[in-house]
Write a structure and sequence with these properties.
With 257 residues, the protein is of the alpha+beta class. It folds into 2 domains: 4-111, MutM-like, N-terminal (N-terminal domain of MutM-like DNA repair proteins), CATH 3.20.190.10; 128-251, Helicase, Ruva Protein, domain 3 (Orthogonal Bundle). It is built from 5 helices and 10 strands, in the order αββββββββααααββ. A 4-stranded antiparallel sheet has the order 1-6-7-5, with helices on one face. A 4-stranded antiparallel sheet has the order 2-3-4-8, with helices on one face. β3 (53-58) and β4 form a beta hairpin. The longest helix is centred in the C-terminal third of the chain and has 20 residues, at 180-199. The protein is globular. The two termini are 28 Å apart. 39% of the residues are buried. The structure holds a DNA duplex (14 and 14 nucleotides).
Length: 257
Amino acid sequence: MPELPEVETLCRQLRPVIVGREILSLRVIDAKLEGLGPLEGRTVRSVGRHGKRMAWVLSDGRCLVFQLRMTGRLFWIEGERIPPHARLVLTFPAGRIVLSDPRRFATVELCVTPAPSPAPDGLDALDPARLADAARGRRLPVKSFLMDQKTVAGIGNIYASEILHRAGISPLRPAGGLSRAEWKKIAAATAHVLEEAIESRGTSISDWMDLHADRGEYQHHLGVYGRQGERCKTCRRRILRAVIAGRSTFYCPGCQT
DNA sequence: GGAAATGTTCCCTC
DNA sequence: CGAGGGAACATTTC
């Protein structure tokens, strides 16, 4: 569920709370997460992110890597009350980090060397020529292409629809058929949408909440996602829903061609 | 009861 | 073999 803006929001909120702080204890509640190894006594040196993947660098040089997938959330808890669906609890001197995750898809692993990803992060300045290159000859819908983490890391189902709406490009177009000018629009729209969503601390369409259990605000800025049947804010046409590779996709038939 | 849900990976088919 | 898509994972909510 969390895409790049939600994970970036968590990183920014985590840094003042856990960087430089010692992990006092680790409690694994869900057996699926067992085998993490001892973390007690390690200090969190830094909190980073690539795409939707978050990595804490620890004082022993290892990395604790989180992939929150669909329903994973991290909460900072100062009291005793543990949220529902807690799978993992990390205790620090001033409070606890809880991984809450009803669908239990999230993964947490301890790595010695974090595997480098060749894909650019969604907040990097995307090179339209590189995108066009990677898409050459490919028939899959441009929306699926953008959601492929090997293309750009961090774009998921909500922001793919939003980026293509802002770029004025239909999500159904084969990726290989886009012009250089259209890739340039996608690169610009990606930066714009992701940065705005971070400023809003993510999209709380149903139940996304940030580290402090506050809702994001980007749901109030969505142009198409979840708005099928409603009117496009720019051209007044009614927004459509389609299913692409099994995922709901929203677009405006008026301003996306 | 059925469908859908902000993700990733495995497997099947063309 | 590569590309693309569907199923599976597990649970809640509408």
